Amino acid sequence: MKRYLITGATGLIGRYILKLINIDSEIYILNRNSNEINQNIKTIQIDLEKDWDENLLPKNIDTVIHLAQSEHYRDFPDYSEKIFSVNTFSTLKLLEYSRRNNVKNFIYASSGSVYNNVKSELESIYFNKEMSFYSATKICSEILCENYEKYMNIKTLRFFYVYGCNQKESMLIARLIYNIKNSIPIFISGDEGILINPIYAEDAAKAVLCAELLNKSEKINVGGMEILSLKYVADKIGEILNIKPKYVFNKDLLAENLTGDISKMIKILGEPQIPFNDGIRYVLKDGNL
Hints:
Largest sheet: 7 strands, parallel
Mean pLDDT: 91
Strand content: 15-25%
Distance between the termini: 26 Å
CATH class of the domain at 3-159: Alpha Beta
């Protein structure tokens, strides 16, 4: 029986992981609330924004899955300390806990934003002055993870535009849905807008569980198979909702390519299975997870 410790388990990817994980596993989740999800999952009440005691964590854990990120990621500098506490300091504490307790696998949820809108090797962007505070906290955590690779297998997964049911409206695709439903204009660079390769949350969760099986440390981009423009995504949402989106075009602004190269993901974790048109239809019509 495997023993898991999971942060961010009630978030978008975490909910699917709890749904997909082997029912015979022993699962502990960190949550600021003490509410039990079900009888098979043990909740440890810890708020990662505050100082917390690692002695509250269980021993003999096989895998740590660190998905949590600050809900205030857009609120720099007002919430800078809370953002850093959740995104970076908690990563350090969990890594040190894992080292002391001989954890075999540590999965860290990073972000495609570490690339800062360019396709570069990670080493070339560590000190990019244009990087957001949120992205900087993710880079810091990636560096911390690198230093602990001698003690455990660490899989750093850089997620690109994950979407799914009941997603927070601060996220891109959920925000597009909100704007279209409320007739709020969507700003488009150039003719079609930015390029993205979104991935459905269930596919993202499957990638996490596949990464756990790797017997060495890896850094892997996790995104969808299809490269889509912002306008295509919005048009598809509007088509399903039967609402015509409102656009404001800036033809003079170059649309950025914000896609991630997922060739490594396909090779060692497998292809995402849910096409965008199916995933977004499920979110809008049927989804309730």
